[in-house]
Amino acid sequence: MGLRFDPMGGGQFKQAVQQIIEAESQPIKQLQARKAQEDTRLKLFQEFKTKFQGLDKALGELSSFRSFRELKADLGDGSALASVTIDKDKASPGNYQVEINQLAARSSSISNGHASPDTPSMGQGFITLETPDGDSREVYVDEKNSSLRGIANQINNQADFPVRASVVQDVSDKDKSWKLILTAKNEGAANQISFPEFYFLDGDEDFYMDDNHEAQNAKIKVDGFEIEAPNNGIQDFLPGVNLNLKQAKDGQPITLSITEDFQKISGKVKNFVDKANEILGFITKQNSVDDKSDTRTSFAGDTGLQNVEFRLRNLLQEGFPVYAEGKDDPKVYVLSDFGIEFDKSGQLNFKEDKFQKFMEKNFESLSQVFTGDQGLATQMKVMLSGYTTPGVGMLAQREQSMRNRIKQIDTDIDNKSRMLDRRQQTLTEQFSRLEASLSAMQKQQQYLSSALPSGGGGGLMSLLGG
Q: Which residues are paired to 213 by β-bridges?
């Protein structure tokens, strides 16, 4: 049956255009569906790529002896007397006896007492002092700021002033309990500061420094030898070891032990195992399909992923040579020798207890297995470079290939959409002209019907097909 139109179209021609355009837009919808599938695959592949980045980062912590090794410091009962930080690249394991006889101290002085910390009663004048390098510093105090707190603020507002000021209350003197304390910013005898001099005029109260403490160096014994340190934070106390003194205990030595941090090393190896399992688990999941799986949006049976799995599993089951000093023939270890082995599901299992025991007895051998020239980390980094190298690696090329396909689909959609727009415009114009012709014919029919006699109209109608 052909399309029928009333004289003015009645909206039927618009519906007809929409039906035609809808039918001719199916190729675009098919392209959009393909793009959605490619977008899903791209996101999935980027997830896979991210897992490679995680494995590469984990390998970075195992790729050299320095990065593999971890050290820890133990002060035993002496942790209240000192603390230690270690640069593992410079420090060496060992035990040291340390006795803290004296802490380094800053120059300080305290003023006489005053009844109020806020009453400006000292008049006006200057505060001067001589620095350790022989220079002098001066602070002017006007009458408005001549209270204890005002003087303290004036001193503390001078960034280059070598002392800081504090106002304290000493209730041993109830009438004049408020005092000013000046303390050098740096400790040690080399930073000794002489008493500051105060010159005030027209004040209601006298102001002077009542007592002072001299600066001093820290004094410690290391394995029985006395040494002096310029401050309490001793940098490179031992190679790669910084010692921070907290409290002096004359005659009470403490033991500083620097040892391998086996627990932290185990954590790095476990992280490597976890990252390898993420890659293997991803590939296994992609290949686990059933009748409900949509393989168009996954990588089921992908030969590239199968190649990654094959090479990764092979490398993790290889033997790694360890060379002992003075011997030409190496001893070969496999990962299962120290607790890293595949389980029935195809995942790596990390037996931390077994790994820890092996490491405590054979740390040098274990470190060679991971960091040696033919070790696991070295070989795996070479393997991974074929996948992860920017621009030319398999991951980059596969990702770019998917992006190119998506870009081509976008181009095809744009081209077909423009053609469809032109098609819709042509159809609209054609139907508009058809409607205009039908309207004109109707008007002619109505005119002839009204102008001719009753009988003649019927004959004309027959001629017009009415």
A: 108
Distances (CA, A) of 142 to 197, 350, 356: 16, 73, 70
> Cα 165 vs. chain centroid, distance in angstroms?
41
Structure tokens at 418: 């423009």
d(CA 75, CA 73): 7
79: left (phi over 0), alpha (psi -120 to 50) or beta: alpha
Nearest to 321 by CA among 381, 389, 368, 271: 368
Question: For residues 52 and 272, is the Cβ–Cβ distance under 8 A?
Answer: no
Which H or E element spans position 152?
helix 148-156
pTM beyond 0.70, yes or no = yes
User: Rounded distance, CA 273 to CA 340, Å?
Assistant: 8
Q: Chain-wide mean pLDDT for the chain?
A: 88
Percent of the chain at pLDDT exceeding 70? 94
- What is the secondary structure of 329-359 as a DSSP string? SPEEE-GGGGTEEE-TTS-EEE-HHHHHHHH
Contact predicate 163/182, CB 8 Å: yes
Query: Which of 93-107, 147-161, 420-434 is predicted with the least confidence, judged by mean pLDDT?
Result: 420-434
Best CA proximity match to 146, nearest among 176, 113, 124: 124
| Paired tokens of 259 | 């040892």
Show contacts of 418-423: CB within 8 Å, 24+ apart: 420/21, 420/24, 420/25, 420/28, 423/20, 423/21, 423/24
DSSP structural state of residue 338: G
Other beta carbons within 10 Å of 280: 20
- CATH class for domain 108-213? mainly beta
Domain ranges across the chain: 61-66+262-388, 71-104+218-260, 108-213
**Dist. CA 260–CA 423, nearest whole Å:** 77
How many Å apart are CA 384 and CA 391, to the nearest integer?
14
Token look-up 């040494």 returns 227
